[in-house]
Specification:
Elements: E1 7-11, H1 14-23, H2 27-31, E2 35-40, H3 45-48, E3 52-56, H4 63-67, E4 78-81, E5 90-94, E6 99-102, E7 106-108, E8 112-116, E9 120-123, E10 127-129, E11 134-137, E12 142-145, E13 149-151, E14 156-158, E15 180-183, E16 188-189, E17 194-196, E18 199-201, E19 206-207, E20 212-214, E21 217-218, E22 222-225, E23 230-234
Parallel strand pairs: 3-4, 4-6, 5-8, 6-9, 7-10, 8-11, 9-12, 10-13, 11-14, 12-15, 13-16, 14-17, 15-18, 16-19, 17-20, 18-21, 19-22
Antiparallel strand pairs: 1-2, 2-3, 22-23
Length: about 240
């Protein structure tokens, strides 16, 4: 979709930049982007409600993706897209204060991003998700990925379970609410991996096929696998070329 579809305004404001940085966008990534605010065509309520949408000059985005972004009007949302996302299936915002940043060199083939009210998704670019990745932040939670991500098919990264699980006697909630997930630099997630709850995955680590990382901290440069995931090898490194 040609960038000429959109009318453009000014550059990223200091306030919006600070908000992105606070949400996990990396300073060096932002500094390398030429972003301008989109002034239209957008719903009539978009600007009236204090929302903002920025595009990089070299980031064509299908208007249909944006046209289906909202189920209901919301306030104070911030969306910043700096990649060609023609292969992204869905970008959906679910309430006031949602923030989505997708940095440069992001390939999310058939992927879906959902960001609920007061939640954040900060994908700092340089990510290849081969097919059908789902990224879901809600209940004030956050998902942050550093550059160098490689995700195999059907990866699911979600802050929450979407439904309440509680102790039948006390009524105390048992499952995580509004969790925070951070994937460090150069992380490889295998096919059908699930990452959910409060999670940190260290730089250079690998999560094996069909593994579950839930409310865990994975060290740097390890391979983990299983349900729940456990370290099966430490002091590892990996590269994309499939060489002997």
């Amino acid at each position: 979709m040609p960038t000429e579809h959109w009318t453009r305004g000014g550059a990223l404001t200091p306030g919006h930049r600070d908000r992105l940085l606070a949400a996990g966008a990396l300073r060096d990534v932002l500094d390398g982007l030429a972003l301008r605010e989109v002034t239209g065509p957008l719903p009539d309520w978009w600007h009236e409600n204090g929302n903002a949408f920025y595009l990089a000059d070299d980031a064509p985005v299908d208007p249909e993706l944006i046209g289906h972004m909202a189920l209901i009007p919301f306030h104070d949302a911030l969306v910043v897209l700096a990649s060609d996302l023609h292969n992204l299936r869905t970008l959906l915002l679910g309430g006031d204060g949602a923030m989505v940043f997708v940095g440069p060199d992001s390939e999310l083939t058939g992927g879906e991003i959902y960001c609920g009210a007061r939640s954040t998704v900060a994908i700092n670019g340089d990510i290849t998700a081969t097919r059908l990745a789902q990224v879901d932040a809600r209940n004030g939670g956050s998902i942050v990925t550093d550059p160098g991500q490689l995700w195999a098919a059907n990866v699911y990264v979600a802050t929450d379970d979407m439904h309440r699980l509680e102790d039948a006697t006390s009524g105390v909630r048992l499952n995580t609410f509004g969790a925070h997930i951070r994937l460090g630099r150069h992380v490889w997630l295998g096919r059908d991996v699930i990452v959910t709850g409060h999670v940190e995955v260290g730089d250079g680590s690998v999560v094996g096929m069909r593994s579950l990382v839930r409310n865990q901290k994975v060290p740097s440069k390890v391979a983990v696998a299983g349900t729940p995931a456990r370290v099966i090898r430490d002091n590892v490194t990996w590269s994309e070329p499939d060489l002997p």
